[in-house]
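Data availability (excerpt). The following record was deposited with the supplementary files.
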Amino acid sequence: MKLYLVRHGESNYNVLGLCNDDPADDVHLTAKGRAQAENVAVRLQDAAFEHIFVSELPRTRETADIINRRHRVPIIAHAALNDIHSGFNGRPVTEYFAATGHDRLNARANGGESLRDYQARALPFLDWLAKRTELTVLVVAHEETLRVVVAHLKGLPDETMERLTFANGEVVEVNL
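Predicted structure:
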């Protein structure tokens, strides 16, 4: 299966430097984020997606909706793709990193998930996806999702996972 992974476009919380893992929060794409999604749509206009999978957080659906104007395929939300539960929802990302920076793989703060916890939640999605019959799919998710999935599919050691970075609107192509 050809798998396209896309980090959602820039959100208002990205601009404000805030954590968000609650789908009910008013977090949406900025004008720049919508433009990033449009750029992804142009780049992937010839890809033959059969489905698009997103997290339950609105910024991934907004990004997918823009990309899907050219494809018109079903979009399916999957909770396993939701962003890491940081324990700092609505609070500055700098506070999250200050609380977990000493051990990003294992540290949990304020009842949140560690990167390993998130990995254990997100990777079963790949097993589920691999059992499906599609030849090409798009997943629009979050930077942590891309870190976990790309590190796993490329066989990278867990210790390097936290150093992977993905810009808003970045596209990664992999085979599953």
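Summary of structural features: The longest strand covers residues 2-7.
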